């Protein structure tokens, strides 16, 4: 009878261990998926920064040579500069919160991973907003340069 109780105790103990490890791996998996999504969006937008700066310079030159739609050109330049600043600020903040001096994922508890994962979900929203700011400001600048 005593051996029977020990077996049940071990079975319960191992089951709890299995399920808690399984949940932890799910939290880690979700974290890694969200982190990868943030980086994917960043990597999609980052190569556009050179073109964004070039568009700003072209618009500034166009202002110097023409006076048509001066206000539209100035607003477009400001939008390009704001999109550039958004990208730089976002990268700095993301690096501080998720890269620089951060413990390895393996060192974090399940609760810490879940908390960081919630932050990553917010980062996905921010990086998408940044992407939209970059793309829309560039599109507007291109349209003004065609006119």
Descriptive account of the structure:
This protein has 147 residues and is mainly alpha-helical. The protein has one domain (30-146). Helix content is 86%, strand content 0%. It is built from 4 helices and no strands. The protein has helices at 2-45, 49-65, 70-98, 110-146. Helix 2 (49-65) packs antiparallel against helix 3 (70-98), helix 2 runs parallel beside helix 4 (110-146) and helix 3 runs antiparallel to helix 4 (110-146).
Shape: elongated
Structural class: mainly alpha
How much helicity do the residues have? over 70%
Question: Hey, roughly how much beta strand do the residues contain?
Answer: under 5%
What is the arithmetic mean of pLDDT? 85
Spans of at least 5 consecutive residues whose pLDDT stays below 50 are: none
Radius of gyration: 25 Å
Number of strands: 0
User: How many structural units, i.e. domains?
Assistant: 1
Biggest sheet descriptor: none
Quickly count the helices. 4
Q: Report the end-to-end length measured between terminal Cα atoms.
A: 90 Å
Order of helices and strands: HHHH
What's the topology here?
Elements lengths: L1 H44 L3 H17 L4 H29 L11 H37 L1
Helix pairs in contact: 1-4, 2-3, 2-4, 3-4
In short:
Helices cover 86% and strands 0% of the residues. The chain is mainly alpha-helical and 147 residues long.
Search tags:
single chain; about 150 residues; about 85% helix; mainly alpha
């Amino acid at each position: 009878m005593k051996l029977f109780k020990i077996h049940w105790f071990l079975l319960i103990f191992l089951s709890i261990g299995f399920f808690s490890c399984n949940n932890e791996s799910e939290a880690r998996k979700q974290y890694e998926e969200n982190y990868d999504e943030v980086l994917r969006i960043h990597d999609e937008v980052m190569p556009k920064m050179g073109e964004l700066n070039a568009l700003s310079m072209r618009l500034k030159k166009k202002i110097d040579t023409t006076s048509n739609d001066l206000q539209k050109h100035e607003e477009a330049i400001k939008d390009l500069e704001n999109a550039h600043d958004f990208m730089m600020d976002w990268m700095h903040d993301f690096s501080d919160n998720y890269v620089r001096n951060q413990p390895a994922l393996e060192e974090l508890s399940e609760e810490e991973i879940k908390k960081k994962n919630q932050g990553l979900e917010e980062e996905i929203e921010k990086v998408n907003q940044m992407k939209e700011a970059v793309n829309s400001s560039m599109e507007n600048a291109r349209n003004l340069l065609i006119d």
